[in-house]
Amino acid sequence: SMVSTKSVTAIALGSPRHFASAVASSIEQDARHSRTFSVKRDFFVEETKERVLGEVKTRLRDVEEVDVNIRSIWWLRMLGNNSKQSSLIRSSNAIYETILSHVSQPHILPIFGKTGSLEDAKNWYPLMILHVWLAFVRLRAIEGDGARLSDYLFSNFWTDAERRIAADLTNPFLLSKFAKELFNRYHGAILSYDEGLILGDTELAEALYRNVFESDADLDATKLLSAVQYVRGTLQILDWQETETITKGVLYFGMSFL
User: Fold this and answer.
1) How many other β-carbons are positioned within 10 Å of the β-carbon of residue 148?
2) Predicted TM-score (pTM) of this structure
3) Distant-in-sequence, close-in-space partners of 188: CB < 8 Å, separation ≥ 6
4) What is the Cα–Cα distance from 2 to 38, expressed in whole angstroms?
5) CA 183, CA 207: separation in Å to the nearest integer?
């Protein structure tokens, strides 16, 4: 729904739950006055199902051309590159690259109140965890292959995360310590986002406030409002997409920037 910010612009931050409740109330109030899905115009061009599926179709065409080339190379066939497992691994690799590309767009950081670049660890980890979770939500709806794609997607994320940790450390002996801390952070964030998905926008806003905005006491309430709307809008866009295209590695996050 279109989201107005009147009810949150003057909120003084108290407890995270009070703050999150006010944001969620604004979203729910707007939802009652709208019959169609659209994304907050302050940040995005309005998405429609037809436009999203058109973009997916274009991307799928490119992926299928690559698959045809792979199947035509005899020595790749002999190495098992046409097996179901190999296909799913390629698909998960493509989904992970899509997430990286999407999160790297210059308009994503400001939506979440971030400055600098995605290469900064304080930006990369929370935003990648959030977007990997968004992909997980859609993959869970796919029986059989969805679970395997999720496993391979996590492996991609974790390999990349460990590489980044190692690159940032001056003492390699600290790698396991920081990797354990990151895994705990990842696990906690995923659980809190799942709770928000199930319980409602108050819990989702709380999860974003803690994990992405790091419980910033000076946070402008409209930033959290936009983040909640971004997540809900992205989940809708992912839900529009067909299982067959996703298992081929095409997952479009939508939300074109104005």
Assistant:
1) 18
2) 0.78
3) 211
4) 6
5) 17
Residue 257: strand pairing partners:
44
Q: Report the candidate in 119, 136, 138, 113 with the shortest Cα–Cα distance to residue 227.
A: 113
Cα–Cα distance measured from residue 133 to residue 111, given in angstroms and rounded to the nearest whole number: 17
From first to last of the 258 residues of the chain, give the pLDDT tens digit: 333 333 333 333 345 555 555 555 555 555 444 433 344 434 444 678 888 888 888 888 877 665 544 454 444 455 555 677 888 998 999 999 999 999 998 889 988 988 888 888 889 999 999 999 999 999 999 998 999 999 999 999 999 998 888 887 767 677 778 888 889 999 999 999 999 999 999 999 999 999 999 888 888 888 898 899 899 989 999 999 999 999 988 999 986 443
